[in-house]
Acyl-CoA N-acyltransferase (Penicillium italicum), 262 residues
Amino acid sequence: MVVHYNPLTKEPYLQLPAPFANIIMTPHREHQIEEASTAMTEFLNDSRVYSWLQGPPYPFLHEHGVDWVKMKVAEQEEVVSTLQKEFETPENQQRDGLNSPKQPAFFDYFPFLCIREVTERDPATGTPLQDVWIGDLSLTRYDFYELERNSPELAQAQKQNKELPAGHKDIVWGLGYYLSPAQQGRGIMSVAVRTAIQDWAIPRMNLHLLKSSYFVGNKGSSRVLEKNNFKAIGTFKDWHPANPLKGLGPMSIVVVEWKGLL
C-alpha cells in the first residue's frame, strides 16, 4: 500500500503511477470550497459529463457544489485526522508513514475523492505545491441498481449491506466517477480507479466486493471498467426515466462486477 503525505499541508494523498505521475487524489479541502465548487459547476453543466450521470441535480448550481464539498469535508474529518496522526507519529516518520508493516484498523470511508493535476512540485522533495481539481471518484456502499426500485428485495439488500461493520468482507461497495471533459480520453480515470482500489480500498477498507454501472452508450466509462477487470452482470432497459431538462429520454444501464486486480 502506498499512501503519501504532504508535510506542508498535513494532507494524505494517493499518487498515480507513470505516465500520470502529475495526477494525485486528495480529500476535499475546506479552504478551497469555492474553487472546487466552481470547477464542479463547470463540469456538471457540460453535456459530456451530465448526460452520463444519474445523481447530481441539473442545472448544477454553485451553491450545490458548496453544500456538497462542505458535506464531504465533514464526512472525511475523522479519517483524515486519523491518517494525520498516523503519519505524524515518530515511528511512522522513520518508516514512510502508512507504508509500515503494522496495519491499523479498517476504515469505512474512501477519503481521496478529488482527482487533481499537479502544476508545481517542490524541486527538492517532489512534494505537490500547486494543483488543479479535475475530477471526482467515490467508493461508497452499493445501492443494488440491479434490483427493482421500491421493492422489498432492494430495501433488504441495502439495509443488510449498510449494517455490516467496517472492514467486513461481505460489504458490497459501489464505484462512481467523473472527469473534466478536457481530461477525458487520456486514460487518467482507468489508472485512478486502479490506484483507489489497490492503494486504499483493499488494504484499508478490506474491499472484496465491488460493483459499478454505466449508461448504455457511455463508451468511455465502459472502457474504464473493462480495463479494471469489471464484467457485466446485466443490462436493464430504460432503467433511468426520461429527463426533459437534460433533453434525454429513458436510459438503459449496465451493471458490472469487479473480478479482482489484473
